[in-house]
Design brief:
Chain lengths: 498, 350
């Protein structure tokens, strides 16, 4: 066996009142390696990380750091021992300066007072080591999420980290930013730091990881060398079965489409989107492709009336419409699942039932109250229909995993019975199993005659269900691909071409 | 399945246990506390007094619980009480005899105040604590202007009934609380309004995407809060047969917020329960009576009140409940795994 692992977890159990979240999980991280921790949502990844970082205390098993048992009681404890974590949502303070964030709680002092000059100089030097030449006296919030993440990493590593845990760091980064993150990760690996990398992107696992540990339904599946594990095998381990392929492109025949359900001509908004056309027929899926910030989300928001359009005209269901708010769009028969599920989607402390019926209730009006019995029927129906994993429809939605939350939000709009549903990144941050289910669901809805607009950064996904793909770049429409032309290469070309 | 039903039950459990505990203490230190007499067509007794005295705060708490559910707060309700009392007194002293007109004028004054608050918070996006602070300060000034700086007394038996009358044996303020509770409960729980209010409090952005009009919802909760306050203000004025702009409802906004918080609501918005807010108001009033009955010198009143409230809030805190449970756990089985780990950790630190 190769060198003693820097961090080793043996037979970890974690039991919550309602669920046995970890059942004897092992994990072993060497110094100077990037180790992927993979598994579907609900497999126990987050719980395992929280056990490592002291957010939760294990109920059984051992954690060894450099061969010594440790018992972190909270994240501060773990950090002092040398285990640092960077989360997907950067957990720094946006209103403080970059330098203040880096040295928060451990500021260099002179005569008992904080030496701000040194704080700023040190921060500047430290960040240079990460290829970041930025003004450290500006508030953290003036930088992009990608930069903020690097700053969080710099802070974590600077606090004498032996182990760095990156919890889905790439979820909100674009391709270039991911590359520079990888460069930093390889750098840190060379310096002997052990990195735990949690992600949903298998490409990234193969790009940067040395070894892989897979969890499935709270159990340890195995530890693998990346070089010798094929992608199909990996997915097989994660799902416990060979993943039925997402399927080939199935062109939806829309010969019956005479008048489009939605016909938007030249809709645009100053500084967000140049005038763009989009037509959607009944029973059709229109894909929106493009990089982050290309105008996908902006187009969705304009169509749905979240932002007011500055130009163009919209016909919906044969009528000229002018939406001033989402309410108008909903009344007319649209629905929108926003991209940022946590911020714009879920009502965290309300129950699954309440989250599901709300859009329908709002559409009906407050005086036409949906009775408790009917609400329960709706909720139970969709829990079954979308196979949402929950024991109870009265559970607060925030206690569900990301994939199940997304299904609840989908159910919310389906319950409102729209004729056009807009999905902005419906599979972001959810695991492969739920991912495939949501794609199957999109197909099924489309067969039932629902029209969909789906924005996604995953080209395979778009190819799998779209009958038309609109490609956006730099806040304008650059191409519209039809049936035969829809394949990842063509979309890629359209995005890249100048 | 049961855990979540239990969680819901537990929300109701602790405030009710708190109230019961106080009542038991009262029964022990002063057995006459529970004596109720029926005389001249109405009930008399300490228990009835508690209900009667708690009525103004209970009314304020009904409105306040809706405001707090939208992640807001209304500091102006005490001043709105003073305004409504002053307006009613003004019309009575000007010779208006029609009770409906007098009460209507008080309520309209309250409604205008509520619209002002709702406009600042909902449509101008001013932070609720600042927006309502304006009326908290200005409102008392407005009431003083209406009273022309005097304490205005009046004699109007019909209006005085609001404060001192009785209906079905109960003091009329208590009846008004019950009626208000029933109306607001119907409006929020038999229509979707309650859910809308909770949705706006739980996630304003998601509510917007679902087409909820947060502005209108905020406007309406501040209006309800102000109407409740106006009613409470008229009860207070009717009780003393006069309007005292300086002292009517003074600091009662704080009692109302406290009542809502004792009832288990979070100031971050979301879930609300009007019933629990009223229980909160009753706890505050019962505690005052308990202190008086116990014969402790009055100078200790405020401190004891504060301590008891801290206790109630601690009992409701999930963190405290967990720690309490762990304490029991350790005592009962010192050799089990968790405590061994804990001990190791302690030695390591030492």
């Amino acid at each position: 066996m190769s060198p003693t692992p820097v961090l080793q977890l043996k037979g970890i159990h974690k039991i919550f009142p309602s669920v046995h979240a970890l059942k004897g999980v092992n994990f072993s991280l060497r110094a100077g390696e990037i180790h992927a921790l993979l598994g579907e949502n609900g497999a126990g990844k987050s719980t395992l990380i929280k056990v490592m970082t002291g957010v939760y205390q294990r109920d059984d098993g051992d954690i060894l750091l450099d061969g010594q048992p440790i018992f972190p009681k909270n994240t501060g404890d773990a950090q002092a021992l040398g285990v640092s974590t960077v989360y997907q949502e950067v957990n720094l303070l946006p209103n403080l300066t970059v330098a203040q964030n880096i040295y928060l709680g451990r500021e260099p002092r002179r005569f008992g007072l904080i030496n701000w000059g040194k704080v700023n100089r040190d921060a500047q030097t430290l960040l240079k080591g990460y290829d970041l030449d930025i003004d450290v006296t500006l508030p953290l919030s003036s930088y992009s999420i990608a930069v903020q993440q690097l700053i969080a990493i710099a802070r974590g590593v600077d606090m004498s980290a032996k182990v760095l845990i990156l919890d889905e760091p790439t979820a909100s980064l674009d391709t270039d930013e991911v590359q520079s993150l990888f460069r930093i990760m390889r750098d840190l690996r060379a310096r002997g730091i052990g990195i735990v990398f949690v992600t949903h992107f298998l490409d990234q696992v193969y790009a940067v990881c040395d070894r892989i540990t897979v969890l499935r339904s709270a159990q340890f599946v195995g530890e693998f060398e990346t070089a010798t594990l094929s992608r199909a095998e990996l997915i097989g381990h994660m799902l416990g079965k060979e993943l039925a392929a997402l399927g080939e492109h199935k062109p939806q025949t829309n010969s019956e489409c005479g008048d489009a359900l939605l016909d938007a001509q030249g809709i645009g908004r100053n500084a967000t989107l140049s005038p763009t056309d989009i037509q959607v027929c009944k029973g059709e899926v229109v894909g929106l492709a493009g990089l982050l910030g290309s105008g996908r989300t902006e187009l969705c928001r304009l169509v749905f009336g979240v932002d007011k359009k500055h130009s163009g005209s919209v016909t919906f269901n044969g009528k000229a419409v002018n939406f001033n708010s989402p309410r108008d769009a909903i009344t007319a028969g649209m629905g929108l699942c926003p991209e940022d599920r946590k911020h714009d989607g879920i009502l965290g402390q309300l129950s699954i039932r309440e989250n599901m019926i709300l859009a329908r209730q709002i559409k009906q009006g407050w005086w036409k109250f949906i009775s408790r019995k009917e609400q329960e029927e709706i909720a139970n129906h969709y829990v079954k229909e979308l196979s949402i994993a929950t024991s109870d429809i009265e559970k607060p939605i925030e206690q569900l995993s990301g994939g199940n939350q997304q299904k609840v939000i989908l159910a919310r709009w389906l319950a409102a019975n729209p004729s056009l549903l807009i999905l902005d990144e419906p599979t972001r941050g959810i695991d492969i199993g739920a991912h495939a289910e949501i794609i199957r669901l999109i197909r099924k809805l489309c067969d039932q005659g629902l029209a969909l607009v789906v924005a996604s950064s995953e080209l395979e996904e778009l190819v799998a269900f779209s009958s038309k793909v609109i490609v956006l770049r730099d806040r304008q429409k650059v191409a519209e691909l039809e049936d035969g032309d829809i394949n990842p290469q063509r979309i890629m070309q359209a995005i890249a071409s100048n | 399945m049961n855990t979540f039903k239990n969680q819901n039950l537990r929300r109701y459990l602790w405030p009710c246990i708190g109230l019961l505990a106080l009542l038991v203490i009262n029964a022990i230190i002063a057995p006459e506390f529970f004596q109720i007499e029926f005389k001249d067509g109405r009930f008399y007794g300490s228990l009835i007094d508690v209900l009667n005295r708690a009525a103004p705060v209970a009314l304020l708490a009904i409105g306040m619980s809706l405001v707090i559910a939208t992640a807001g707060v209304d500091l102006s309700v005490g001043s709105i009480m003073a305004i409504a009392g002053a307006v009613s007194a003004y019309y009575i002293t000007k010779g208006v005899d029609n009770l409906a007109l007098i009460i209507g004028a008080g309520l309209i004054a309250g409604l205008i105040a509520g619209i002002a608050n709702g406009f600042l918070v909902g449509y101008m996006s001013i932070q609720p604590i600042v927006a309502t602070l304006i009326l908290m300060v200005a409102g008392r000034g407005i009431a003083q202007l209406i009273n022309e700086g005097q304490i205005v007394t009046f004699d109007h038996p019909g209006f005085a009934f609001l404060g001192t009358g009785s209906f079905l044996g109960l003091p009329f303020p208590v009846v008004l609380v019950i009626i208000t509770f029933a109306i607001v409960q119907l409006l929020t729980r038999r229509t979707a309004l309650g859910l809308y209010i909770e949705a706006v409090g739980a996630n304003p952005s998601a509510s917007h995407y679902m087409g909820l009009n947060a502005k209108a919802i905020k406007m309406s909760v501040y209006c309800v809060a102000a109407l409740c306050a106006a009613l409470a203000g008229m009860i207070a004025a009717a009780d003393i047969r006069g309007s005292d702009a300086n002292n009517a409802g003074l600091w009662l906004e704080l009692d109302a917020i406290l009542a809502v918080v004792i009832g288990g609501a979070s100031l971050m918005g979301g879930r609300f329960s009007i019933f629990l807010a009223i229980i909160g108001a009753l706890i505050i009033q019962t505690l005052t009576v308990t202190i008086i009955l116990s014969g402790i010198p009055p100078k200790f009143n405020l401190l004891i009140k504060a301590s008891a409230i801290i206790l109630v809030l601690l009992l409701q805190s999930p963190l405290f409940q967990k720690q309490l449970a762990q304490l029991k756990f350790r005592k009962s089985s010192p050799t089990n795994n968790t405590s061994v780990n804990g001990n190791n950790k302690e030695t390591k630190n030492a």
